[in-house]
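[Meeting: bench + compute handoff]

Bench side (C.D.) handed over the final construct sequence. Compute side (W.E.) agreed to return the predicted structure before the next meeting so the bench team could plan truncations. Sequence as handed over:
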Amino acid sequence: MLTSKQLVQLAKQAAEEKKGCDPVIIDLKGESTMASYFLIVHGTSDRHVKAIAESVIDALGEAGEPVWHREGLQEGRWALLDYGDVVVHVFHYEARTFYNLERLWGGLHQTRNHAR
């Protein structure tokens, strides 16, 4: 079984393998009871959003971590993947900009990957 930190890192890696854009990990530990980490990433089209989300589902499933709940995968504008302690948000760019979760949770520790 993976730790929450390992799980979110594996999810980030899976999103990056599908060229997920601007992945951000937000550390919620001690700030929220809903999860320890959010991973926020976006795609450039509905198909890209689905591919990123499916890559995360496959990678974490292969590691023995099945998704507990998923929403929005069919539409491709925004997918939410709930792994209990880790919640993955895969947005279409416009939806990510609209919901702006980074600003909403902005006072918390965020890790960005600028090496792209």
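W.E. noted at the follow-up: The radius of gyration is 13 Å. C.D. will use this when planning the next construct.
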